[in-house]
Design goal:
Helix 3 (44-53) runs parallel beside helix 4 (68-78), helix 12 (354-365) crosses helix 13 and helix 17 (558-570) packs parallel to helix 18 (590-600). By secondary structure, the chain is an alpha/beta fold. Strands 12, 13, 14, 15, 16, 17 and 18 form a seven-stranded mixed beta sheet that branches. Strands 7-6-11-10-9-8 form a six-stranded antiparallel beta sheet. A five-stranded parallel beta sheet has the order 2-1-3-4-5, sandwiched between helices. It starts with a helix and ends in an 8-residue tail after the last helix.
Amino acid sequence: MNEEKEEFLQSLTILCVEAEEELRDNLVSFLKPKVKTLLCANNGKDGFERFKKQKVDFVIFNVQIPDGLEMAKKIRYLEPEIPIILTTDFVKDSILLQSLKIEIDKFISKPTDQNLLLNSILQISKMLLQKQQIKNFTKTINFQEQEIKRNKEYLSVVMKNVMDCVVTVDGNGEIVFVNKIAENLVGFNEAEIIGKHFCDVFSMTDEKTGKPCSKTFLEDVKNSFCAILTKDGTKKIISKSISPIATVSGKNIGAIIVFRDITEKRKMEEELLRVEKLESISLLAGGIAHDFNNLLTAICGNITLAKIFLSPTETKVLQRLQEAEKTSFRAVDLTKQLLAFSKNGAPIKSQASVMELLKESAYFDLSGSNVKCDFSIPENIWKVEVDEGQICQVIDNLIINASQAMPNGGKIEIICENVYLDETDLLPLPNGNYVKISITDNGIGIPKANLKKIFDPYFTTKEKGNGLGLPTCFAILQKHNGYITVESEVGIGTTFLLYIPASFKEEELSKNNQGVFLPQSSSGKGKILLMDDEEIIREVAGNILDYIGYETYFAKDGKEAIELYKKFYQANEPFDIVILDLTIPGGMGAKETIKKLFEFDPKVKAIASSGYLNDPLISNFQKYHFKGAVTKPFTVKDLSEILSLLIGEEKKVAV
């Protein structure tokens, strides 16, 4: 017997039940040295009691002992797997039948062959061990199958409820799983999707070129962006990620495709980019408009003076000058559009009625045209706090564009409604109450390729357009904390949607409550100090003031102006009026200068002058101790009227 068998036998506890003393002693002398424990009994009843008291690995009994089969039956009931060897010198059919029912593992005839007994014990133990191993293995397999089933069910639930689109394909690209989010995105149900090739259901195209993606794109595991066409033909922009499924050997047997609809996010990014473009041009536009207005002041002023000094007989020259003057003031409108981009073009807001603004603008813009305008404005429409001039500029632009889109005539429909916006509306606006205005035409429409560009500065499809109309509208709405967007279909028409924050302030006082100054004298004379950094402005304004009859002195910046003012004041020859330019590059401007002059002389009369038409200081000049304001380009009439009001000069110059 080898060591392994000996070691195994040394681990066994065997119950031996034999009535014949000699046979029992032989078994004891043979087995006791070889096994861990040997228990003995001479009948079935005692044997079963010994079995119950101590754990037994093997049972050997003589079938002829009293209660032997009954003992075996009870043992088998308690321990179905315990091995039982039956020894006998004869076997009756009835005993054999009962033994078979008890499932005796081995029959050994007497006299007992001791080696056969040992081999039988080892063989039966080995079989039972293998059986137990198979049982354990089967149990493990069943457990793993249940775990796989549970994990599969859990994974299915997770993927069905995950907020991203999830699709699983096999090695051929055919869909084996799709979650509800993916179904909703493309508009197909699960029955229409399962079993089909991924590319046949999820029609993906290159985001930039629009070309269909090759079916080999499933091999590209990198994250990427592309467009997808839904069942109804809608284009969605998605972000996708592909994770291959491989065997242990590395063979690809499928893939998991996870993608997310980023259409609205991309729209928001485009809107932010558009805002950034407008911001980048604002500094340039503000500076250009300011400098341009300075030049126009000189041009218009000199044209006006030329008309004044022109001989009445020179009618042709006068006609040319009038045309030049008209063209110059058309250029002023262009600077107003440029200033809409400028940070200095802040709106001067007051509470207004949307109904009045819309109807007045539409009546004026469509007068004499073959286009009709229908209004749908409820009586309880909220008021808005706006710069009326700027909002009218927006409305005029949109109505004129709508009219031009219908050269053969048509109808413009204007609808207003009170709305509350929150994050679910997917608009770049804070939550709150807004007045929504839609302006719809049934004209030629705007091609999809141009829809994203119409609010970009200088983009135009008109031969004589400057590309500033709609970008100006966008900038104005932005500065009013509002928003403008567009929907259009070629051959059907276009709708512009405006959102303006509602205002619930109490009714404001009359806009004319700016301060009225009665003339203090009627001498018709006065001393003026003009501060402006542009020599050409000082020259032309000086000529205008001299013509009107004023004595004029000049300063290039605030420092010079303060020194001159103090000098004449201390000489008891004070200035009647000080005209101060708001912006002095590299020097002291009007705002700081008036502060120091007011500290020196609280009775100082100053007029603010600016090339920024919408500078907040111009509309609220009293707050800064000014008595009046003029914007460039100003005319002889502008200066004459404001000086006449403040000084008391009643002389009017006809020009």
